[in-house]
Design goal:
Its cofactor is FAD. By secondary structure, the chain is an alpha/beta fold. Helix content is 21%, strand content 32%. Strands 9-8-7-10-11 form a five-stranded parallel beta sheet, sandwiched between helices. Helix 4 crosses helix 6.
Length: 351
Amino acid sequence: MQEIKVRISKIVDETPDTRSFYLEQLDGKSLDYVAGQFLTFIFSVNGREVRRSYSIGSTPGYENELFITVKRKENGEISRKMLDHFKEGDILTCLLPSGKFINESDWGNNLQYFFFAAGSGIVPVYGIIKSILHKNPNAPIFLLNQTTSEQDIIYKDGLSRLQNKYVNFEYQLFLSRPSTKSISVQRLNNLQVEKLVNDRVHNKEERENARFYVCGPTTFMRMVRFTLRLDGFREEQIKQEQFVIQENNYSAPLIVDKNNKHVKILAKEGIFEFEVQYPETILHAGKIAKVSLPFSCSAGQCSTCAVVCTSGEVVMTKNDILTDKDLTNGLVLTCTGHPATDIVLDYTLKN
């Protein structure tokens, strides 16, 4: 369900260990996506299925071609495979674009945007920044990009072009191990985050109109988020992307009625039905029934499996991605979701 085939049309070296892969659908149609989302790819490695998600760096309306960017990960079997062996013309299988690390704010002139990125965390951030500037060229945007050295700057030329084109785009680069001795070592810490923000936000109205996007290693995101919360910014003003997925070790929730529950799936491909036996998740039961539901992390953190529940009740053991608004609109995660009643899940609705 929702699997598509894409062809690698072009490969661009971004840094010595990072490449961008330009993709096109085999049917020639354009993929519908939002800046900041990702694609989940399905690989076969030694007879087993392996899924990996890579952020989209392109921006609809800004570039004509969709591209993802892949950084080599130490001991990463898929990133090594992609960087060392994949070539132009190769065909890949992936799911439709998903992810909630996107700009959902109104395109108003009063909003001020702050982006904190580290390493390959710049990939979705780059797409979101371009989308904001494309819609509102006068939007004030501040980007702090933390990376290792001058040679490790992903999208170096693209970021420079944005800086030269938009006077309202402020860009600061921190290098933790610069190769040039004249460049000082800089590592972002909580005091710097507080100062960088408060130097640009001066009153209550500006604080209310500030929007923050954080993407990078877990410790980096935790530090930035914790600092912003201590500084009085609300949780809903801060968005972060999960790159490191933690294993789901949560036990099934306590459900009074442990009898089998009926699941009805509405999808473009048709209607599918199966039973869920406690304590299975909806996703696992679907696999057993040979119903291919979309998923990636299987840990309640990425939203690839999110779907609208139009009837019945679903209890989730873990949810690190859906907001209160999402839950009100009926969104649930099948990877950590357990039906408390018979349910209907509608994949035809835009989630």
